[in-house]
């Protein structure tokens, strides 16, 4: 029988993606056994992130500084912009280390079914970024799902009046595939072989 504090910790961990009550209990036991090597570093890391967590005003990434580390990095090519649905997609593409530009997170995808309209997503801020100039290529890296592709078509329409190259990730992404679940090699290949929006 665990105390209410330990029970609360277990329940909080069980709400994390990929963890259920059983793995949460195992994690709590592990944390308690490894107080100095696991629990205390975790506490410090959680508290540091918890205090500083912000959404980047420029790109929508989640980080501990605004602008985020990617937007603030002068080695990034500002002429190259990659549009993704979610922060998890940005992180997946960034892990592939093949995209030297910056990102724009929409915060979702257009969906008639879920009632997600253009004004619910970061589309006006994307158009404003492109309108401000200095961008040569926009890569539409929405997911290879029906809604992801509908979103890409809509974005292509909104961006066609600007003098930029519009590309999308190469086919070969599995249909229905979500970027976050792809291995880095597949993602890198799709990025390398990106093609103009037709
Ligand atoms: Zn940013």
* Main beta-sheet annotation: 5 strands, mixed
Spatial extent as radius of gyration: 20 Å
Helical fraction equals 40-55%
Strand order of the largest sheet: 4-3-5-6-7
Q: Give the low-pLDDT segments.
A: none
The N- to C-terminal Cα distance equals: 62 Å
| Share in β-strands | 5-15%
Number of helices: 8
Tell me the series of helices and strands, N- to C-terminal: HHHEEHEHEHEHEHE
Average pLDDT: 91
Shape: elongated
Bound molecules: zinc ion
Secondary structural class? alpha/beta
- DSSP, total strands: 7
What does this structure look like?
This protein is α/β, with parallel strands linked by helices and 198 residues long. It contains 8 helices and 7 strands, in the order H-H-H-E-E-H-E-H-E-H-E-H-E-H-E. Helix 5 links the parallel strand 3 and strand 4. Helix 1 packs across helix 2. The longest helix has 18 residues. The model has no long low-confidence stretch (mean pLDDT 91). Zinc ion binds next to helix 4.
SSE layout and pairings?
Blueprint: H1 4-14, H2 21-33, H3 35-52, E1 54-55, E2 62-63, H4 69-72, E3 77-84, H5 87-95, E4 101-105, H6 123-131, E5 137-140, H7 146-159, E6 165-168, H8 184-192, E7 195-196
Parallel strand pairs: 3-4, 3-5, 5-6
Antiparallel strand pairs: 1-2, 6-7
Bound molecules: zinc ion.
């Amino acid at each position: 029988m665990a105390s209410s504090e330990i029970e609360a910790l277990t329940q909080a961990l069980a709400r994390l993606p990929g963890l259920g009550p059983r793995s949460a209990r195992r994690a709590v036991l592990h944390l308690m056994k490894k107080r100095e090597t696991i629990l205390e570093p975790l506490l410090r890391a959680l508290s540091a992130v918890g205090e500083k967590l912000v959404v980047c005003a420029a790109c929508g990434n989640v980080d501990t500084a605004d602008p985020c580390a990617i937007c603030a990095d002068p080695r990034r090519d500002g002429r190259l912009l990659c549009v993704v649905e979610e922060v998890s997609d940005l992180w997946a593409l960034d892990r592939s280390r093949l995209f030297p530009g910056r990102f724009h997170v929409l915060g979702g995808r257009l969906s008639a079914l879920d009632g997600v309209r253009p004004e619910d997503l970061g589309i006006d801020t994307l158009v404003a970024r492109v309108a401000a100039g200095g961008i040569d290529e926009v890569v539409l890296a929405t997911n290879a799902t029906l809604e992801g592709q509908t979103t890409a078509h809509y974005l292509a329409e909104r961006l066609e009046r600007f003098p930029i190259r519009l590309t999308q990730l190469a086919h070969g992404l599995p249909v229905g595939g979500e970027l976050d679940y792809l291995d880095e090699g597949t993602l890198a290949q799709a990025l390398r072989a990106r093609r103009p929006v037709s």
